Amino acid sequence: AFFWLVSLLLASLIWFVSVHLSDQEDAKLQYGLLVFGAAVSVLLQEAFRFAYFKLLKKADEGLATISEDGRSPISLRQMAYVSGLSFGIISGVFSVINILADSIGPGIVGIHGDSPYYFITSAFLTMALVLLHTFWGVIFFDACEKRRYWCLGLVVASHLLTSGLTFLNPWYEASLVPIFIITLCTGLWAFVTAGGSFHNVLKCLSCK
């Protein structure tokens, strides 16, 4: 979570400087800078995810050195899951904190013609982002370990696409549906990456 916060801080600084060095009266330029800031934020998040992977690899080697059997007590998959979940939770908190602050009033959502589904769609979007970060963490760590650079590229590309789709709001059908499709596909990919299979699902359902 700390690594995600640092990436957000750096992205915010870059966007802040860009805005103040540009023409703040130009609405189209400011919108473009907002899109630029979102893209920079995504790239920095993935860069810090990679930095965290390298840090955990060093820690893993140290734990293996001092253990009795020469193996680390924590597997890479466990670290990937925890890392992705941490990124997701802190990302979700920052996604909804301003929305929750606005929800205390005054006013009623939709009273000026805005969508009355603003809060419920924001909740679903936040849920999708938390799940996506968890799945991305599992896939990203496995790709780094096995040096599958095309997998890393797909993770970054899907993250950029998800972030870009949010700019379609308040046209929620155009943003929420594709994001949940990406979440489902990424979840299946992470499941297979973590060693899951249809046979394992059947064994789990049959309690064997």
From TrEMBL:
- Pfam families, from UniProt? Aph-1
Q: List membrane-spanning regions.
A: 31-48, 79-97, 117-141, 148-168, 174-198
What Gene Ontology terms for biological process does this UniProt record contain? Notch signaling pathway; protein processing
The reply to whether Nucleus figures as a keyword in the UniProt entry is no
- The identity of this protein, by name, is Gamma-secretase subunit APH-1
Q: Which stretch is the leader sequence?
A: 1-19
Recorded topology in the membrane: Multi-pass membrane protein
Q: Which GO terms describe its cellular component?
A: gamma-secretase complex
Similarity field: Belongs to the APH-1 family.
